[in-house]
């Protein structure tokens, strides 16, 4: 277990050794983005625009238009909410190769409350075309995602967390943008999760197995483009679906799964997450526990839901 931001930076440093076009743009966020080593190694490739997120994105778009490959790094709440217009117009609509990296996502800022929590960023970005929205579940997937993004010319958003996450969840195969990963196969219910919640979904599945419930666990690491065919293939094999995410249940993973199955293969869906984008304040893990996002709480919710639809 270690901070996933460290793996992001390590991977980017390794890539920068061989690619002089890679640059980093920050909003006075060298420390929170874990970029001190990158700055020491490549001081001329770091641009600090100060606490000005709209400038952060617009300046990055300009660098991309000049032929560079900028990675714009900021706390997720500020990057997404303060600069949505610039992300939409200067990056996505204009088709510039800017990689946006949001760190300290969900309720990682805990006691700082609603102004610093990021529980609507995914729903803000899901409707934009030609834009990859990626949420890795462990360090190994983060490394693979960075390499995949480096090979792409399209703009993208990489949603990372603060705090410890597992190095590897032993997921089959390798990360592929736009493809789900079936981490565990089951027959009774399918549990779709993103990011930090994938590990908790696996732990919940272990708990449920002791009650003779067979639960699939699916890592939806890419919210756009969404792997519709992969989701339907999993949904066809079970009686009901559950989504779990560190985000408001509207418009992100929960919304995406509901939209998909409603159109192609209707099934009952339980959405676990935050009831809306405003949450209570407190230590991050206490906030998650308050909203039922521990492995034990997830297991209880899934068990009740499966029993409801089995009767």
Question: Mind explaining what this structure looks like?
Answer:
There is one protein chain. By secondary structure, the chain is α/β, with parallel strands linked by helices. It folds into 2 domains: about 160 residues, Thiamin diphosphate (ThDP)-binding fold, Pyr/PP domains (Rossmann fold); about 130 residues, Rossmann fold, CATH 3.40.50. Helices cover about 40% and strands about 20% of the residues. It contains 12 helices and 14 strands. The strands form 3 sheets. A 7-stranded mixed β-sheet has the order 3-2-4-5-7-6-12, sandwiched between helices. α7 links the parallel β6 and β7. α1 runs parallel beside α7, α8 crosses α12 and α9 crosses α10. The mean pLDDT is about 95.
Short summary of the structure?
The protein has 311 residues and is α/β, with parallel strands linked by helices.
Low-confidence stretches: none
CATH-assigned fold name of the largest domain:
Rossmann fold
What portion of the residues fall into strands of 2 or more residues?
15-25%
Question: Which H/E pattern describes the elements?
Answer: EHEHEHEHHEHEHEEEEHEEHEHEHH
What percent of the residues sit in helical stretches (DSSP H or I)?
A: 25-40%
Overall residue-averaged pLDDT value: 96
Number of helices: 12
Class from secondary-structure proportions: alpha/beta
Which strand order spans the largest sheet, edge to edge or round the barrel? 3-2-4-5-7-6-12
Main sheet makeup = 7 strands, mixed
How many β-strands, per DSSP?
Answer: 14
Shape label? globular
